[in-house]
């Protein structure tokens, strides 16, 4: 029994060292390394692993030796480093986007569902049923190809305004709206196969808002798909340049393939013009719906200061590998 305890002790000690080294390296997230980017994604997992490891150690420890303090220091260092990034998505910090009040009339509200439907997913009905149940004003679908376009035709009666760019490279995009488009442009910020939309939408009260819908490529290499390996978020930087020069109330929504961790300004260069609706509220992890061990927030909504938030919700699981994200905003 003593030998077994010793083996387990040293496994736990090595675990603490690995977590500490990984957390220190994760700070270097802007270096062009796929490995370091993965460490940036897994901050929640790092924090929870260190917390569980610390609790286990305190429960099994029989006496205190010099290596015990190293182990505790490792677990605490890991939690401290990760907390620096994660704390922004807890109620401990103030909300960047304030809560809506009862003074906001119905005509000043706009609701949005964004969802990566997963192109290879051949079960559209759960997603269609969810959209019909929620009835958002806007529905952004990503990874839309011709098959998905055919399936989503059934909601076009409820959404008389739409814009679509379809492809078979997992970067098709469709935007469905109950409000008319005053203008909608298709942009290719980084890659000719990766569209984004720039829309001006007129609400029922006659006010115009600007909506950018995006799905930039992830910072890794794909053999047969568009990739962003070694490139410093060119699409997000270009989007930031567009937003800097616009005056209308603005929403940015999409699967940005990045966890950001309170790093919006760094990605877009917008100098605190874009506000993350999740700050001060929660993580709302949207991917991976099939595996809770590798789950993090990839689908985001950012707004300018003219907006308040009435509701944000991670929707129930459907057939996709992403959860849908629902937000209701008020001007």
TrEMBL record:
SUPFAM superfamilies: DNase I-like. The keyword Transit peptide does not apply. Keywords: Endonuclease, Hydrolase, Membrane, Nuclease, Transmembrane, Transmembrane helix. It holds the Pfam family Exo_endo_phos. One of its GO terms (molecular function) is endonuclease activity. InterPro entries: Endo/exonu/phosph_ase_sf, Endo/exonuclease/phosphatase. Residues 116-322 form the Endonuclease/exonuclease/phosphatase domain. The chain crosses the membrane at residues 7-29, 41-60, 67-87. This is Endonuclease/exonuclease/phosphatase family protein. It comes from Mangrovivirga halotolerans.
């Amino acid at each position: 029994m003593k030998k077994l305890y010793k083996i387990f002790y040293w496994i736990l000690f090595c675990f603490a060292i690995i977590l500490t080294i990984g957390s220190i390296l994760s700070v270097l997230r802007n270096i062009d390394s796929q490995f370091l980017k993965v460490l940036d994604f897994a901050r929640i997992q790092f924090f929870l692993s260190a917390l569980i490891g610390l609790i286990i150690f305190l429960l099994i420890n029989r006496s205190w030796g010099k290596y015990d303090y190293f182990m505790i220091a490792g677990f605490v260092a890991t939690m401290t480093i990760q907390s620096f990034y994660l704390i922004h998505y807890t109620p401990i910090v103030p909300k960047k986007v304030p809560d809506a009040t009862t003074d906001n009339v119905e005509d000043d509200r706009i609701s949005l569902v964004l969802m990566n439907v997963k192109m290879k997913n051949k079960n559209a009905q759960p997603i269609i049923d969810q959209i019909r149940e929620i009835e958002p004003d806007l529905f952004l679908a990503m990874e839309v190809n011709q098959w998905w376009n055919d399936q989503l035709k059934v909601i076009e009666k409820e959404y008389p305004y739409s814009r679509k760019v379809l492809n078979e490279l997992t970067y098709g995009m469709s935007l469905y709206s109950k409000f008319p488009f005053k203008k909608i442009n298709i942009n290719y910020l980084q890659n000719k196969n990766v569209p984004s939309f720039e829309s001006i939408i007129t609400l029922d009260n006659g006010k115009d808002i600007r909506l950018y819908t995006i799905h930039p490529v992830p910072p890794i290499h794909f053999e047969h798909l568009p990739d962003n390996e070694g490139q410093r978020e060119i699409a997000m930087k270009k989007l930031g340049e567009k937003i800097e020069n616009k005056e209308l109330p603005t929403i940015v929504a999409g699967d940005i393939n990045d966890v950001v961790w309170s790093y919006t300004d760094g990605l877009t260069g917008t100098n605190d013009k874009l506000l993350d609706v999740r700050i001060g509220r929660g993580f709302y992890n949207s991917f991976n719906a099939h595996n809770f061990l590798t789950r993090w927030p990839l689908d985001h909504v950012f707004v300018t200061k003219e907006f308040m938030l009435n509701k944000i919700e991670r929707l129930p699981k459907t057939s996709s590998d992403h959860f849908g994200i629902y937000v209701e905003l008020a001007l």
